From TrEMBL:
GO terms for molecular function: NAD(P)H dehydrogenase (quinone) activity. Keywords: FAD, Flavoprotein, Oxidoreductase. This is NAD(P)/FAD-dependent oxidoreductase. InterPro entries: FAD/NAD-bd_sf, FAD/NAD-binding_dom, NADH-Q_oxidoreductase. One of its GO terms (biological process) is aerobic electron transport chain. The keyword Transferase does not apply. Residues 6-315 form the FAD/NAD(P)-binding domain. Belongs to the NADH dehydrogenase family.
Length: 409
């Protein structure tokens, strides 16, 4: 009987955990998952953690639990070196892990584009730690502004789904917080959303962009389009036009690039934003024993947007294809099934997109459908990890006792 193939998965996000959950069940595979965090979380919900409208309990799943359930080994740490010749990965903990097949699922981070002052003076939400730090800063800023009788100026750069949803969720945080509410928000918050392009939500039809802009403006948010940020300091953002936009709390949510850790895989083809080039079977173009999925991978022949649904489908594909490859069989190529996109502005509104031309949602009731679909995508992923009954109970509990953000009101 041949020894089990050693499979190492770097990154326990949506794609990485889907792959690990599927592969861990195979008797001829010895799987190890590495992640710097002790818990798995749904990255598209980071804006909710950052606003304090989603709690850790029930939404952050310890990797030790998933490892025990699906039969893989979890190691907490971050990769610091990859030796493809010897097939080993070294971690910041001092451990060195061997592999026969390596699955890179390291995700992405915000792209600062080298703009001066962004890294030093802005907050990001690339991880759960980032989101928790942003909420702590937001909470303190709210308390200081109220104590001083001043407005809190918040500036978010990036009019994609992350920036749009985050700025709406911060409004929801104040609206739902004990002792605060919509009236306090209107007198307290001075928020601006800054977008380089001609409209926000450029991946959605223009009608959705227009409706979302109107909804944000109805909440008192200033939406600035065709506003290129060329610098940031401790007082706000500098635009190419020469204008300075004041912001005491500055958040960068513009653009994405592959995690810096992908640079450890020297000699492999990569895209302009750092993504590893892969074939139709998600194997890197220059090393068939290394796979890349999710935001850190790119199929040049058919590029896919960096979304959670794409990462999830690729993780599930690895779970099917890698056992075939190990057994010497040729797997079918990866086929992406685009199920559309959804954007939810807190509880205020929401829209979905079935394809490039057909959208739905908007308005008090029709927007509810989009918001429920947005949540449903997350609950579907959660059910695959925790099981249907625990997920249903968790969902019911959260809806019966919604989170009241602690902003010190």
């Amino acid at each position: 009987m041949s020894a089990a193939a050693r499979v190492l998965v770097l990154g326990g996000g949506v794609g990485g955990l889907e792959a690990a959950a599927a592969l861990g069940r195979h008797q001829n595979i010895s799987l190890t998952l590495v992640d710097r965090s002790p818990v798995h979380y749904w990255k598209p919900a980071l804006h909710e953690f950052a606003a304090g409208t989603m709690q850790h309990q029930g939404n952050c799943i310890p990797f030790t639990e998933t490892a025990a359930k699906f039969g893989f080994t979890f190691v907490q740490g971050s990769p610091v070196a990859v030796n493809r010749e010897n097939k080993t990965v070294s971690l910041d903990t001092g451990a060195t892990l061997p592999y026969d097949y390596l699955v890179v699922a390291l995700g992405s981070r915000a792209n600062d584009f080298g703009i001066p002052g962004i890294v030093d003076h802005c907050m990001f939400i690339d991880s759960l730690n980032d989101a928790d730090a942003l909420f702590a800063t937001f909470r303190e800023a709210v308390q200081k502004a109220r104590a001083a009788g001043e407005k809190l100026s918040v500036g978010i750069v990036g009019g994609g789904a992350t920036g749009v949803q985050l700025i709406a969720e911060l409004c929801k945080s104040i609206d739902d917080a004990r002792g605060l509410g919509p009236a306090v928000r209107k007198s307290l918050l001075n928020a601006v959303l800054i977008e380089t392009g001609p409209r926000i939500l450029p991946a959605f039809p223009e009608a959705v962009s227009s409706a979302a802009t109107q909804q944000l403006e109805k909440l008192g948010i200033s939406v600035r389009t065709e506003a290129m940020v060329v610098g940031a300091d401790e007082t706000g953002f500098n635009l190419k036009s020469g204008e300075h936009i004041p912001a005491s709390l500055r958040i960068w949510a513009a653009g994405v690039r592959a995690s810096d850790a992908t640079n450890l895989l020297e000699g492999l083809e990569r895209g302009r934003s750092g993504q590893l080039g892969v074939t139709a079977t998600l194997q890197t173009t220059q090393d068939p024993t290394v796979f890349a999925i999710g935001d850190c991978s790119r199929i040049d022949a058919a590029p896919i947007a960096p979304t959670a649904q794409a990462a999830r489908q690729q993780g599930q594909y690895i779970g099917r294809a890698l056992p075939d490859i190990i057994a010497g069989r040729a797997p079918a190529p990866f086929a992406y099934n685009d199920r559309g996109a959804v954007v939810a502005l807190g509880d205020y509104n929401g829209w979905g997109m079935l394809d490039a031309k057909r959208s739905f949602g908007g308005g008090l009731l029709s927007g509810l459908a989009a918001r429920l679909i947005h949540e449903g995508l997350y609950r579907q992923h959660l059910a695959g990890i925790l099981g249907v009954t625990p997920t249903a109970c968790s969902t019911l509990r959260e809806h019966l006792s919604p989170v009241k953000p602690d902003l010190g009101g």
